[in-house]
C-alpha cells in the first residue's frame, strides 16, 4: 500500500521507533491505534457515502474496506448490497468431489460441500447486484489483463453470464463477459478434491487485507474487530 501523500500515517507505520502510545495497559506487542484514525460513525458511509450508484462507483473505483478475514468481508458486502438500489440476483455453485469411488462421494453430501469456502474460492451462494464491484479470483486471460485481483463493476446480470466493466489494469473500461467455470481449489488441507462450478469472482466493496495487495486504493477503511495476524499484515 503506497502512502506517499499520507506522511502521518506512513510515519505511524514505522513501528520500530518506540514512540507508539500504550495508555490502556495493553500487551507490549499490541499496537494502540490513535483516535484520529478511528471513525465515529458508519465505516461504510465514511468510505462509500450514503448512496451507492453505478456512476458513483465508476467515478470512485479506488475505494474499499479491508478486513483481516473472509467472514468479515462477506458480512460487510452483504450489508452494502442491501443499501444499494436494484434487484439482487443469486447464483448458486454446483459442488462435487473428484473421485472414482461412489462410496467416497456418498461420504460428503452436497449440503456439506456447499457450506465450504476454501481460500481463494467463490462462495456457494453468490449474491450480487448491477453496480456492485467484484474481484477476479483466478487468472482468466493474462494477455488481456484479466488476472487474479482484477476488479470490475457489474453492468448486467444474465442467467449464465455476468457483464462487467473493468476498473483496473490494462483492460480498464472494457466490457467483459464472465462465465461460470469448473475449477479446483488450491487448498491441500481438504481430505478430498473439491470441484466447483461457479463465477470466479467475489463482491469486493470489502476485501481481505491479503487480497488488497497490489491494488491501487485512494480511500480505504480498515475493519479491525480483532487484532490482525502479524505486523506485516497491518
Explained architecture:
This is Atp-dependent dna helicase pif1-like protein. Residues 111-157 form the DNA helicase Pif1-like 2B domain. With 234 residues, the chain is α+β, with helices and mostly antiparallel strands. The protein folds into two domains: 1-38, no CATH class; 39-92 and 124-190 and 197-222, no CATH class. The chain is built from six helices and twelve strands. The termini are close together.
Strand content: 25-35%
The helix/strand order is: HHHEHEEHHEEEEEEEEE
Roughly what is the average pLDDT, rounded to an integer? Answer: 83
Please tell me what the overall shape is.
Answer: globular
Largest sheet, strands/sense/barrel: 7 strands, antiparallel
Count of alpha and pi helical runs: 6
**Which residue ranges are poorly predicted, with pLDDT under 50 across at least 5 consecutive positions?**
none
The span between the termini is 10 Å
Assembly annotation: single chain
Neighbour order of strands in the largest sheet: 3-9-8-7-6-5-10
**Total individual domains:** 2
Question: Which SSEs are present, and which pair or pack?
Answer:
Elements: H1 7-12, H2 43-48, H3 54-59, E1 63-67, H4 70-83, E2 89-92, E3 94-97, H5 102-107, H6 110-114, E4 125-128, E5 133-136, E6 151-157, E7 161-166, E8 175-183, E9 194-199, E10 201-203, E11 206-208, E12 219-222
Question: Descriptors for this entry?
Answer:
single chain, 234 residues, alpha+beta, 2 domains, seven-stranded antiparallel β-sheet, globular
Amino acid at each position: 500500500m503506497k502512502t506517499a501523500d499520507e506522511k502521518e500515517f506512513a510515519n505511524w507505520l514505522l513501528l520500530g521507533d518506540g514512540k507508539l502510545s500504550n495508555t490502556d495497559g495493553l500487551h507490549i506487542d499490541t499496537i494502540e491505534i490513535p483516535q484520529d484514525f478511528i471513525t465515529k460513525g458508519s465505516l461504510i458511509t465514511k468510505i462509500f457515502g450514503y448512496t451507492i450508484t453505478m456512476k458513483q462507483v465508476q467515478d470512485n473505483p479506488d475505494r474499499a474496506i479491508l478486513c483481516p478475514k473472509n467472514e468479515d468481508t462477506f458480512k460487510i458486502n452483504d450489508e452494502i448490497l442491501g443499501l444499494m438500489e436494484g434487484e439482487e440476483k443469486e447464483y448458486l455453485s454446483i459442488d462435487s468431489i473428484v473421485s472414482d469411488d461412489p462410496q467416497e462421494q456418498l461420504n460428503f453430501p452436497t449440503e456439506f460441500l456447499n457450506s465450504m469456502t476454501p481460500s481463494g474460492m467463490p462462495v456457494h451462494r453468490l449474491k450480487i447486484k448491477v453496480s456492485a464491484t467484484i474481484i477476479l479470483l483466478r487468472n482468466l486471460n493474462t494477455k488481456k489483463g484479466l488476472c487474479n485481483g482484477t476488479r470490475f463493476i457489474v453492468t448486467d446480470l444474465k442467467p449464465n453470464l455476468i457483464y462487467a466493466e473493468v476498473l483496473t489494469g490494462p483492460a480498464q473500461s472494457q466490457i467483459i463477459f464472465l462465465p461460470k467455470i469448473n475449477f479446483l481449489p488450491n487448498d491441500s488441507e481438504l481430505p478430498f478434491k473439491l470441484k466447483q462450478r461457479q463465477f470466479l469472482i467475489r463482491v469486493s466493496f470489502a476485501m481481505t487485507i491479503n487480497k488488497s495487495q497490489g491494488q491501487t486504493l485512494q480511500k480505504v477503511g480498515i475493519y479491525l474487530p480483532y487484532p490482525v495476524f502479524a505486523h506485516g499484515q497491518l
